[in-house]
Amino acid sequence: MSKTILVTGPDLDPSAAQLVADRGYQTVHTPPYADSAVISDYLQQTGAEGIVSRMGRLDAAVMDAAPQLKVISKHGVGVDNIDIQAAAERGIPVLVATGANAVSVAEHAIALLLAAVKRILPLDAGLRAGRWEKPGFSGHEIAESTMGLMGMGAIAQATGRMAKGLGLHLLGYDPYAPDSAFEELGVTRCETVEDLLAGSDILSLHCPLTEQTRRLLNAESIAQMPKGAYVINTARGGLIDEAALVAAIQSGHLAGAGLDTFASEPPAADHPFFAVPEIVLTPHIGGVTRQAGARVGVDAVRGIFQILDGQPVAPERIINRKLLAAAQAEPAKMEK
């Protein structure tokens, strides 16, 4: 047995690394955004029993190259880089660090919102270039506007709490969230995506990327939003049809956007977003703070050891728990 935890990326908070060392294990890191072949090589060379998934895709081929692999623990909550069905078929639980980075990502969502609406970046650039653009300037006040939350998980709820402090009204859509998630924040629950879009002066995306939600925000859905609305995305870039978003801003239907994620990361040097000054961009770092990094890293590592030790894990942290149950039930059916 190899007492190794593989981290698919260059960083792990020192508190999480110390937890690994205290258990007599070592961490080995892949390069950032390593492809499946490189990750497979690292798994074979190290014999790692657990993975802290940060960057790079973990697919069936990676898992088949590592029969000793017992658990995958996401450094965060987005698992679109992990084939959770393949993991379930191989009896590998996939864990998420639910809520551990919620405050940091929510703060970033609000920062992107304010930067985009208040036109902070072009005004800063103009001033540095010698322009005093106060004459003729007309800004926009966000108080009393309506923010729509697409998804009502921990990050959305944290974003909503902060948005209320800015005087925003809140709408929300999430067919899987209990009524209590809406009621505790005073969020008006929308029964359809269309209702949320039509009522959102600011649309903040907080849903996972699945085949059902891929390009959820496209030309047709954007057209349902009010003229002059803004889009904020701290979730996954694949939720947005990027060409449609650019077209909507250039046509004047949308006023701007604040985006922390891209459909493909890192983006190409000639990505169309870079030519649109109304879009504020950051490199998927909303949850990358010292405080969130410590909480997420420790949660990810602790979950690995809970699985390795046969200890119980909170059901909501096992993102493929239903798929695991189904995969385990199938052989039982065949035996009857």
UniProtKB/TrEMBL annotation:
<dbReference type="GO" id="GO:0016616">
    <property type="term" value="F:oxidoreductase activity, acting on the CH-OH group of donors, NAD or NADP as acceptor"/>
</dbReference>
<dbReference type="GO" id="GO:0051287">
    <property type="term" value="F:NAD binding"/>
</dbReference>
<dbReference type="Pfam" id="PF02826">
    <property type="entry name" value="2-Hacid_dh_C"/>
</dbReference>
<keyword id="KW-0560">Oxidoreductase</keyword>
<dbReference type="InterPro" id="IPR006140">
    <property type="entry name" value="D-isomer_DH_NAD-bd"/>
</dbReference>
<dbReference type="InterPro" id="IPR036291">
    <property type="entry name" value="NAD(P)-bd_dom_sf"/>
</dbReference>
<feature type="domain" description="D-isomer specific 2-hydroxyacid dehydrogenase NAD-binding">
    <location>
        <begin position="110"/>
        <end position="286"/>
    </location>
</feature>
<feature type="domain" description="D-isomer specific 2-hydroxyacid dehydrogenase catalytic">
    <location>
        <begin position="7"/>
        <end position="313"/>
    </location>
</feature>
<dbReference type="InterPro" id="IPR006139">
    <property type="entry name" value="D-isomer_2_OHA_DH_cat_dom"/>
</dbReference>
<keyword id="KW-0520">NAD</keyword>
<comment type="similarity">
    <text>Belongs to the D-isomer specific 2-hydroxyacid dehydrogenase family.</text>
</comment>
<protein>
    <submittedName>
        <fullName>D-3-phosphoglycerate dehydrogenase</fullName>
    </submittedName>
</protein>
<dbReference type="InterPro" id="IPR029753">
    <property type="entry name" value="D-isomer_DH_CS"/>
</dbReference>
<dbReference type="Pfam" id="PF00389">
    <property type="entry name" value="2-Hacid_dh"/>
</dbReference>
